[in-house]
From TrEMBL:
SUPFAM superfamilies membership: S-adenosyl-L-methionine-dependent methyltransferases
InterPro entries linked: SAM-dependent_MTases_sf (IPR029063), tRNA_(Gua-N-7)_MeTrfase_Trmb (IPR003358), tRNA_methyltr_TrmB_bact (IPR055361)
Organism: Tepidimonas sediminis
Official protein name in the record: tRNA (guanine-N(7)-)-methyltransferase
Source organism, top-level taxon: Bacteria
Annotated catalysed reactions: guanosine(46) in tRNA + S-adenosyl-L-methionine = N(7)-methylguanosine(46) in tRNA + S-adenosyl-L-homocysteine
Protein's UniProt keywords contain Methyltransferase: yes
Binding locations of S-adenosyl-L-methionine: 72, 97, 124, 147
Binding site for substrate: 151, 183, 223-226
Function noted in UniProt: Catalyzes the formation of N(7)-methylguanine at position 46 (m7G46) in tRNA.
GO molecular function ontology, one term from the record: tRNA (guanine(46)-N7)-methyltransferase activity
Family to which the UniProt record says this protein belongs: Belongs to the class I-like SAM-binding methyltransferase superfamily. TrmB family.
Protein's pathway: tRNA modification; N(7)-methylguanine-tRNA biosynthesis
Length: 246
């Protein structure tokens, strides 16, 4: 989770969904890796960072157990990832993040909290979904505060686009969920439109007063940036959709 997390051009489409070009789910960001993050990368990386491989992941082999698998795309500095994993020890979490300081920061939190249910892939999430995640494998997906690309000419770079959502949905188990959050209302509206248009997804929010959005679940901790925005009167929108059975 991050306020400046890796972002997307319109992603490559899954089989059966046409798309004119192959793109990445992120852009590289500048950032300095601290000494502590570098130590975590060197000492903990071999255990918790999985090498990208163009073949399906075996979660039971990776985590040493069979448990629900949650994918987080663009976890930023990883604080929310660590808190969620600590609060849900019965589930396993796979985080995708290309930003090295963020990977190092999450590794530090894994060590400090003695977490055993988190693994990281430092690679483009679209390729991870295409090649490392099998169809019907995920129990959930978290996408918190992806870059909204405010300028209209940059909207095509937003992560939540129909081809990407189709790919994502194909990797969810029936009943599995996708949870997005954003603090940019125009992007929230686009997310709601795109997710609602995917025929295999159903909106989990049943309160008509919320206009299709969901209350923030207890498991998603608010970020410092989010808390500051709320104090200033800025909104935050959560969206939770579930894959339909069948």
């Amino acid at each position: 989770m991050t306020d400046t997390q890796p972002v997307s051009d319109t992603p490559a489409a899954p089989p059966g969904v046409a798309h004119p070009k192959t793109v990445r789910s992120f852009v590289r960001r500048a950032g300095r890796t601290t000494r502590g993050q570098a130590r975590a990368l060197a000492e903990l990386g071999p255990r918790f960072v999985l090498p990208y491989a163009a073949q399906p992941l075996d979660p039971a082999a990776v985590f040493g157990r069979r448990a629900p698998l949650i994918l987080e795309i663009g976890f930023g500095m990883g604080e929310a990832t660590a808190q969620i994993a600590r609060s849900r020890p019965e589930e396993d979490f796979l985080g995708c993040e290309v930003h090295e300081p963020g990977v190092g920061a999450l590794l530090k939190r894994i060590e400090e909290l003695a977490l055993t249910n988190v693994r990281i892939v430092q690679h483009d999430a679209v390729e991870v979904l295409q090649h490392m995640i099998a169809p019907d494998q995920l129990d959930g997906v978290h996408i918190f505060f992806p870059d909204p690309w405010h300028k209209k000419r940059h909207h095509k770079r937003r992560l939540i686009q129909p081809p990407f959502v189709a790919l994502l949905t194909s990797r969810l188990k029936p009943g599995g969920y996708v949870h997005c959050a954003t603090d940019w209302q125009p992007y929230a509206e686009q997310m709601l439109e795109v997710l609602s248009a995917e025929p295999r997804l159903a909106n989990a929010s049943s309160d008509p007063a919320l206009g299709g959005y969901a209350p923030r679940p207890d498991y998603r901790p608010p970020t410092k940036f989010e808390q500051r925005g709320l104090r200033l009167g800025h909104g935050v929108w959560d969206l939770i959709f579930r894959r339909r059975d069948g």
